[in-house]
Amino acid sequence: MPHQDTALYKAMLDAVRQTLENMAFVEVTEQPEELELKIPDEASWVSILIHDPVQGEIRLAMPQILLQEMTANMFGIETEEATESQQQDIIAEILNTLAGLFMTNLLPDDKTYQLGLPEHGDGPLPENEDNAIVWNLQIENSPLLLVASGVGLVSENH
Amino acid sequence: MKRIVIADDSSTARMFIKRCLDIIGLGDAEIVEAEHGKDALAAAKAAPTDLLLTDLNMPVMDGETLLKWIKASPKLCEMPVVIITSAGNPAKEQELLELGALKVLNKPVAPPMLMDALEDFIDD
Question: Which ranges in A31-150 belong to alpha helices (H)?
Answer without folding.
Answer: 64-75, 84-106
